[in-house]
Design a protein that fits this description.
Alpha-Beta Plaits, 16% strand, Rossmann fold, Helix Hairpins, 12 strands, six-stranded parallel β-sheet, 326 residues, alpha/beta
Amino acid sequence: MILYRLRFALVLLVLTVVGGTVGFRWIEGWTWLESAWMMGITLTTIGFGEIHPMSDEGRIFTLVLIVGGISVGSYTATEITRYVVEGDLQRDIEARRWRRAMDTMHDHHVVIGYGRLGREVALELRHAEAPVVVVETEGTAADCAERDGFVVVRGDGTTDDSLRSAAIERARGAAIATSSNASNVFITLSVRQLNPRMLILTRVDDDETARKALKAGANHVLSPQGLGGAHMAHALLRPNARAFLDLAMSRASRELEIGEVTVSGTPHTLAELAAPEKHKVIVVAIRKADGRMITVPGPRDELVAGDIAILVGRPDNVRAFAKTMA
């Protein structure tokens, strides 16, 4: 509404300037430059005086122009001040920045729901240097996501418009983490229809919802309660193994990382690669192109194009090994 009033005021100001210039030109017969100059000093009330002797009609026109011009100028100045002071200027700048960011976004991850789980997912993705877009309808949570530095779509994730605003068609993956099971299943179905190829991870609270989410198109489902319970049980039964995994998965860790590398080069056996000796990483599993998972691969196991190697090592060593396999 403020922007509409500002545009209206600017249009009135332009019409006043054009009308005054044309009026002086028509009434007094001055040149366009002389008419524009007279219009300027009249509107701004500078008071240099008449540039030529003026007729009575011209003086009457000038009186009307002074009253109307001052009124329009004051109105325009008020609307400009309101536009700046009330924050609309900053919001428009941020909106343009957001549109530019979304226009260039591709192969990103969309996090739908910025509660405790959604926030952790977004922070982990950013730690892995993956581009992230957050979709959140609740104002406080959306503000939190913006303070955390994420690109935010303020909208309902159950609507296709909000998902399209997050460039879901160009996204690589989606984490659906709202607090509602029904919403999560519905969003999963919508996301799968908009992007049949993307990876979808959906939060669920029970087995029935998990089955529905998988049927709706989720690649994987996650139960925070189940995951937390398993985490605690493993910490009790195998505390050192649990500590190792926590170190590998922690955002704060710079010593260890569990990564994966998609192979696109020529085939090599693990013995030929000599990953531990040459690259200081350990290949702990191989996902074959046909979907089979080879755990604890041996020296004779091959990495061929399309395979995915799961690695353990320092982050910089994992990235260096990935470059050799590209």
